Amino acid sequence: MECLANRLKKKNTELAASAVVAVLAVGLVVACAPASPATPATVAPQTAVETDIVAEELIEPEPVSAPTQTPGVIDGSLDHQALLNDVLYSRLSVQEAQAILEQIADSGDTHFVAGLIDTLRYQRRLNQDIGRSLNELTAQDLPSDWFEWVEWAGRHTEIESFPSYAGWKAELYSNVDPNFLRFLYQGVEVATGSRVEEIVRGGVTVDGIPALDNPKMLDPSEADYLVPHERVFGVSIHGDTRAYPARFLDWHEMFNDIVGGEPVSLAY
User: Do residues 136 and 105 make contact, with C-beta atoms less than 8 angstroms apart?
Assistant: First the structure.
């Protein structure tokens, strides 16, 4: 039995070895066999895409022309209102605002004068530059002081403003108080001898200081509150003569009354 078992074991070993050799042989054959040429991928033939546009039919774009107007210029003339608004309201750098003021000064256009004086009051960071432009336009040598320029303009009524000045000034004042538009607007009529350029804001809103309207009048003998040499404003129309004490008007700064059948206003 033992001999048979040994024989079988030996036989199985030989069979296993033969199997290994067979496997190796197959591997060598596969490894050494020449590779088959790869089958090229099938590429679908491309179909030409036709277009409705041919070269001769392409529309050539029109050249973009440069703007005919430059900022602040209308029909070859300076736009007074736009340039003044740029200095007043725009958030320009100091250098940009100075360039506009130089443009105004170089134009020699005195229609800017009244608007520049108004701008001088409210655009204080540029007061030196605005004053310089005013002096160049008017051939003066005045300081950059708003009040001094207002007095100067009052003595030079020959200098006219640009056509839309009243409306421009009304818009400026309405930014302080919209009630200014009740009596200041484009086309407003002012009394003979007066000018829109001479209208200045008193520093308060409309009716911020109430006027003395149609005050009760007394006979001089009853006015025991008066003192000798007291200053009064005297008005006499059609035989109706009245006196308004200056110390009363210190509080109101203005009275409105009917004197001799005529409406009268006095600002103090």
Answer: yes
Q: Which two tokens stand for residue 181?
A: 């538009």
Helix (DSSP H) and strand (DSSP E) numbers for the chain:
8, 7
Domain hosting 122: range is 73-198
In a domain, 22, yes or no: no
Is 34 part of a structural domain of the chain? no
Query: 77 with 184, same domain?
Result: yes
Rounded CA-CA distance 85/176 in Å is 15
pLDDT band at residue 72, thresholds of 50, 70 and 90? low
Q: Is residue 14 part of a domain?
A: no
CA 71 to chain centre: 13
Tokens representing 249 are 């008007």
Residue 92, judged by CB atoms within 10 A of its CB (0-12, 13-18, 19+), counts as: middle
> Is the residue at 16 inside a domain?
no
Burial of residue 176, with CB atoms counted within 10 A of its CB: 0-12 exposed, 13-18 middle, 19 or more buried = middle
User: What type of residue is 57?
Assistant: E
The pLDDT of residue 26 is: 37
Closest of 232, 246, 238 to residue 263, by C-alpha: 238
pLDDT, tens only, 148-197: 999 999 999 999 999 999 999 999 999 989 999 999 999 999 988 899 99
Q: Is the pLDDT of residue 64 over 70?
A: no
Our count of domains for the chain comes to: 2
